[in-house]
Amino acid sequence: MIRIVRSLIALAALVAVPLAAQDSGIAVGAKAPNAKLTTLDGKPADLAPFVGKRPTLMLFWAAWCSNCKKLEPQLTAAAKKYGAQVAFVGVAVAINQSAALARAYAAKHQLPLTSFYDGDGAAAEAYDAPATSYIVVIDKTGKVVYTGVGADQDIEAAVKKGLGS
Known about the structure:
Layout: H1 2-15, E1 36-39, E2 44-46, E3 56-61, H2 66-82, E4 87-93, H3 99-108, E5 114-118, H4 122-126, E6 134-138, E7 144-149, H5 155-163
Parallel strand pairs: 3-4, 4-5
Antiparallel strand pairs: 1-2, 1-5, 3-6, 6-7
């Protein structure tokens, strides 16, 4: 199953057709799952501290993802505006990047995310991530309130859904 998810993510990234919000991935209204990953320096971690505690924006990303790069200015602006109220989490996928590459990219570009590495695809599978640039917003009760893929997402509007605005 993990190989299928990885293949779908790679295929979607190659096609690079932006999808509208909520066209694929985990269902809006679903309870957000936990997933085991590692920090970008290889320590065991999981998503539990971010699910059901406070609103969370989760981005599945890669250093090579052009849509992710285009989202960075919006992410930075939203993190500056809502960072005290919302957790911003990055899930670096393992397709064509190592944890070291993801760590170097996140540092160089000053990504406003608490980033993790999804080495075995557990988070991508748990969230049914269709591609990189996939955003999931979870409200404080742990319910998925937004999903979307591509560079043309309105991140502030998605964050406001997480806040209940």
